[in-house]
Amino acid sequence: MKCRVCGQEASIGLRAYNTALCADDFIFFLEKRVSATIRKYHLIETGDTPIVAVSGGKDSLSVWHILNRLGYPADGIYVDLGIGDYSRTSLAKITQMAEKLQRKVYTLHVRDIFERGIDEVARAIRRVPCSACGMIKRYVMNKVCIDRDYNVLVTGHNLDDEAAALLGNLLYWKDEYLWKKSPSLESRDGHLSKKVKPLFLCSEREMAAYAVLSGIDYIYEECPFSVDAKSLEYKGILNNLEESSPGTKLQFIKGYLKRMKVGKKNDEEERDMAYCDTCGYPCYGDKCNMCRLLERFHIEKGMDFDEYDGSSLDSTRPMVT
Ligand code: Q46
Ligand code: ZN
């Protein structure tokens, strides 16, 4: 199999595009697609200050790497869930990437705040770990954006993640989520930062290939609490369809995008949404879930973030209140 661009031995076959490419041309091809997605959907514009939500996995480290290569200087934010070796290894990979990019990374350690890991926090409030984790991450990442003047929060969701979620929403007609799968969710009133997904049109397989061919050192293990069997099942179904009809996932998501107005606001949600009396975070009611959680554990201190500037292994711990 020869590279369609240069004729050398190809490193990857892309059946959805009916082509094959060598490592260098594939890296160029993928970065160009991310760049086109950013421009087409106005994900990051001149003067924006993006920050990437990193987990140590291939998608988030790759999108961080790509943005900086494309000329969108971006820092990183990581929430250390306190899950033993998994969290330690993730942080090591993230620190390594921060050093490579010479960019800052903020880390919030769940154990510093709650004196326990995410599984114990979740158990205490009778939730599953992913539910407590999602809530804390959303809050913390938004807080860093607002407090530190980053106006765009970038995540590493890829085509397979989005197609699986869309399939699940369609199968069960979850109208409340159906039209929210946009590559860009607009900011709101200075309380909620804009959220964007530059890898929206890049498949899981392409991202794994990009990470390997670009020499990105990422954590291979999944979070031990990642038991979303449904999502894995949907990804399996879509992969089978992709196998017999290459390009199916891309068509599914592109068809969806055509039918929605990107970044459209849900008026009903806007009406019902209020702001937390304590911290100002958008919520339903007078107090947000994070403030309730801190209250539940009798925590009154602010959040300390480790701040690593990418140039040395020393970190300072400025207060973000
Ligand atoms: S990190 Fe958090 Fe995921 Fe782990 S606890 Fe669940 S939600 S699985 S993306
Ligand atoms: Zn609050």
UniProtKB/TrEMBL annotation:
Residues 2-27 form the 2-thiouridine synthetase TtuA-like N-terminal LIM domain. Keywords: ATP-binding, Nucleotide-binding, Transferase. InterPro entries: Ncs6/Tuc1/Ctu1, Rossmann-like_a/b/a_fold, TilS/TtcA_N, tRNA_thiolation_TtcA_Ctu1, TtuA-like_LIM_N. One of its GO terms (cellular component) is cytosolic tRNA wobble base thiouridylase complex. Residues 51-220 form the tRNA(Ile)-lysidine/2-thiocytidine synthase N-terminal domain. ATP binds at residues 53-55, 59, 79, 156, 161. GO terms for biological process: tRNA wobble position uridine thiolation. Pfam families: ATP_bind_3, TtuA_LIM_N. One of its GO terms (molecular function) is transferase activity. It comes from the Bacteria. SUPFAM superfamilies: Adenine nucleotide alpha hydrolases-like. This is TIGR00269 family protein. It comes from Syntrophorhabdus aromaticivorans. The lineage of its organism: Bacteria, Pseudomonadati, Thermodesulfobacteriota, Syntrophorhabdia, Syntrophorhabdales.
